[in-house]
Every structure is written in C-alpha cells, then in structure tokens.
Write a structure and sequence with these properties.
Layout: H1 2-21, H2 26-32, E1 40-41, E2 48-54, E3 59-65, E4 67-68, H3 78-85, H4 92-102
Antiparallel strand pairs: 1-4, 2-3
GO molecular function, one term: serine-type endopeptidase inhibitor activity
Keywords: Signal
Signal peptide: 1-20
Length: 114
C-alpha cells in the first residue's frame, strides 16, 4: 500500500512539472484568448477568410475578416493559427527558439532556416 501512495505522489509531481513546461508565453496566451473581431471595412483591403483560436473548443476556426483593424487573434491560415495557439500541433522547442530569434509570436510559426 505504501508503494502505491509513493507512486501516486510521484505521478502528481511529474504531471505538474510537465504541465508547467508546456505553458504558452503570456503574449501568446493573451492573443489566443481574445474573441475574434472582424475589424472594419476599408477600401484598400477585401474581406477574406481568416482563422482564430477558440479557447473554449481549443481549436482554430475560420471567420470573415473585413480587412482593417480587429485584434491579434487572426491568422492567414489554419496552420499558422495552430502553430501559434495550439501547442499540441507544433514542436514547442522550435516555437520558443523562433520567438527568441524574431521577438514576434506571429512569426514564430516559421521553421528556422537550415
């Protein structure tokens, strides 16, 4: 019985350490938790499909962007949205290195040069 208690305690500590290691940076978390905003119509831009991260479903969904304004929770492609906001779909170490190189979470999805 004592071994089970020790194993359970070890599992809890290990799970806590792993979950702390995969937390998103604050800036990304703030971007990905915003509600999508379609922005406003502007003459130089056409309406187009963009992608946003839905923190409730933990998935990227599309919406129609009006072309100007809005907020930072908008991405050109679903892949870009997943790479930035959904940690289960990308290599987190590469993501962190890209943020360090670019200083910009919206460029962090790009693979590093060979």
């Amino acid at each position: 019985m004592k071994n089970y208690v020790v194993m359970a305690l070890f599992a809890v500590v290990l799970l806590d350490a792993v979950s702390a290691a995969v937390q998103l940076p604050e800036e990304t978390d703030a971007t990905c938790n915003q509600k999508p905003r379609p922005g406003k119509r502007c003459p130089e831009e056409k309406r187009r499909r963009m992608w946003y991260f839905n923190p409730t479903t933990e998935e990227c969904s599309s919406f129609m962007y009006n072309g100007c304004g809005g907020n930072t929770n908008k991405f050109e492609t679903k892949q870009m949205c997943d790479d930035i906001c959904n940690p289960s779909t990308y290599d987190y170490e590469i993501y962190l290195k890209n943020i360090e190189k670019t200083g910009n979470t919206t460029e962090a999805f790009e693979p590093p040069p060979n």
